[in-house]
Amino acid sequence: MTKSKKTPLLQVKNLSKNFRQGSNVVIILDEANFELRENEVVALIGPSGCGKTTFLQTLGLLDEATSGEIIIYGDHLTEKGDGEKTKYRRNNIGFVYQAHNLLSDFTAFENIKMPLLIKHGDRKEDDEHIFNMLSMLGVEHRRNNYPTQLSGGEQQRVAIARSLIHDPLLILADEPTGNLDSDNADNVISLLFSMVRKHKKSLLIVTHNPEIAKKADRVITIEKGKVIERKKIS
What we know:
single chain; alpha/beta; Rossmann fold; six-stranded mixed β-sheet; 7 helices
C-alpha cells in the first residue's frame, strides 16, 4: 500500500488480550484503540502491571491478541498466519529491550548484521551500511568485540543499531535504559531518539522515566485495559 500522510502508520482497533487464571479471566487489554503516525515518537507510561509490555509484545506480533485488529499501512496483521507474522515481524519491526538480548557468541558487527542475513541473505554491500551505523552510534571501534566485552551503554547502542539496520517501519522499545546508570541512560536515549528521527522512523517506547517521556511527541498510558492519551509532560 502507498504511504499517505493521512493514513497512520499503525492502527490498533478494539484490541483485547486476556487469559485464564484458574476459573477467572484476567483482562489485560480491553478493546484498546491507538494510532501512531509516521515519524512520530510516543511514550507509553504507567504503573507496573498495567499492561504496557503486553501491549508492546502484541503490537510486535510476539504475543497473540484475543481479539481486535493491528494494522500497519493498511496491512491487517492479525489476519495473517503464524509464518506470515514471523516474516512480517522480521522485515518490518525493530525491537530494543531493557536487556540488550545480543547473541553472546557473535561480535557487535555480527549481531547487527543478523537481521539483514535473515531478511535477504549475505550481501557484501550491507557491510558498509553496518559500519556507518556503528560510527553514528560511536561504537565503530568495538565492532569486533563480543557483548561481554562491551559496557552496558555500548551493548544498548549495538542493540539500537540492530533494531534499525533492516529499515523497519516501526520501532518498539521496552524500558531500553532500565539496566543503565543515569549518564549512560541519557546518552542511549539521546542516540535512540536522534537515530529514529534521522531515519524517519516511528517509535513507541515504554518507560517509567518522566525525563524520557518529555522528549516524546505524545504520551499515553493504559488504564483498565484502555489506551488513554496523557497530557504532554513538561
